[in-house]
Amino acid sequence: MKGNEHKPNIGIFGRRNYGKSSLINFVTNQAIAIVSPTAGTTTDPVRKSMEIGGIGPVVWIDTAGIDDVGDLGRERVDRSLQVMPAVDLAIILFTDNRFEQIERDLVRQCAERETPFLIVCSQVDRVLPDESLITKIEQEFNTKVFRLTVSDPSLREPLIERIREALPQSAYSHRSLLGDVISAGDTVVMVTPIDSSAPEGRMILPQVQVLRDIMDNNAVAVVCRETELAQTLAGLKTQPRLVVTDSQVYPMVADVVPDEVFLTSFSVVLARAKGLFDKYMEGTPTISHLRDGDRVLLLESCTHNVTCEDIGRVKLPKLISKFTGRQLDFDVLGGASPIARPVTDYALVIQCGGCVITQRQLYARLEPAVRAGVPVSNYGLALAYVAGIFDRSVRIFKQSK
C-alpha cells in the first residue's frame, strides 16, 4: 500500500481561458477537466491522478484563472494560490503573447519556495508566439519555454518528457523509513493499539508503511497490541532491535520494553522521513515553557470522525495541559483548512505524522510557522516529551548519524 504521500503534485496556473484544463486533458489523453470558452469555468482546484512512465502516479491540479474578478473571483484566486506552496512542479501558462506581472508573480512565488516550474506558451495554433518575447523569457528565467497546441498529439510525449526533466527525483523516489537503522535479519516489534479511533478491519496507514519498510529491508516484523507486548517480547529468542509503537501508549510500552532496546513511534518515524525533524527537535521542548493563556495549534493532515479516544483532538491537549499545569487554548485544523488567525498568535504548532501528504505539502503547511519563528513539533515527539521519554524516542536516530 503506497498511499497518496508518494504522488508528486503538479499544479497548472495561468489566466482564465489560457488552456489549463485543456492541458490536463491533453496530457492524460482523457476528458478529465471541463473545457469551455466561458471564462471562469474552473472554480476550485480539481485533482486527477495519472501514471507517468519513469515516475509513477502523479496528481494533476487544475486551478482557477489567476486573473478572476469580483468577490467570488478573488476567493477562487486565493484558493489557486494556496495550492502553489504544496506542488512539486508548477506549470505556468501564457498565451496571446501576454507575459506580464501576473505571470511574473507566479514565477517569483516558485523561486521564493524553490519550486521547480515549467513555462508553457499555449494555444500557439491560435496566436503565433512572438519569438523575441520567448527569448526574453528564457533568458530572464533561465528556462526553456514549451510551445503547445493541444490539437497536435505529437507534442504530448515531448511535453511529458519536459515534465519528467523538471520534476525533482525527491518528489517521487521512495526513501526508506528505517533502512539506515535496521539491518537484514533484525527483529522489529510493532505495537498497534485497537481502540475506538482505529479504522474498522484494517491497520492505519503509518503502520502499513512501517510494516512494508521493515519487510523491504529484509528484517522480521512482529505485530502485537500493547496488552500482549510483554508476552510477545518473552516469546522472542533474542531481543528486538527496535520497538515501534503508537504514540498514545508510550508510557505503557516504555515500562515493558527494556531500556537497552531502541523505542520510537510511528509518528516519529514519519516525522524524520518527511523532513523538518531538526525543527521538531528544537521546538518540542517549548512545551515546558508554555504559559497560561498560550495558544497551541494542532495540524492534522487528514480528516476523520472524532472519538473520545482521538489522539490529536482529545488526548494530546489533555496530556499537554496536565504536563504543564497551565490553562492553554488549543485549535485543531484538519485537512488543508486555512489557518483562521495569524500563526504568530500561537506559542507552538504541532503537526501530525503526515502519512497522507507529500514532503513538500507538509513543509508548505508548516512554512508560515517556521518563517515566523514559531516553534513546531510533531504528535509523536510531543507525546514522548510529556511521557518523559523524549530522548529515548529519538536515540536510535541520533546513533545513526
Beta strand %? 15-25%
CATH superfamily of the largest domain: P-loop containing nucleotide triphosphate hydrolases
Q: Report strand order across the widest sheet.
A: 2-3-1-4-5-6
Let me know the largest β-sheet. Answer: 6 strands, mixed
The CATH topology of the largest domain is what?
A: Rossmann fold
| Class from helix and strand fractions | alpha/beta
- What's the CATH architecture name of the largest domain? 3-Layer(aba) Sandwich
Number of domains as seen in the coordinates: 3
Radius of gyration: 24 Å
Q: Span from first to last CA?
A: 29 Å
Determine and state the CATH class of the largest domain: Alpha Beta
Topology overview:
Layout: E1 9-13, H1 20-28, E2 46-52, E3 56-62, H2 70-83, E4 89-94, H3 101-113, E5 117-121, H4 131-141, E6 146-147, H5 156-166, E7 187-191, H6 205-216, E8 220-224, H7 229-235, E9 242-245, H8 250-256, E10 262-265, H9 266-274, H10 277-283, E11 295-300, H11 311-324, E12 329-334, E13 348-351, H12 359-372, E14 376-378, H13 379-386, H14 390-400
Parallel strand pairs: 1-3, 1-4, 4-5, 5-6, 7-8, 7-9, 9-10, 11-12, 11-13, 13-14
Antiparallel strand pairs: 2-3
Helix pairs in contact: 11-13, 13-14
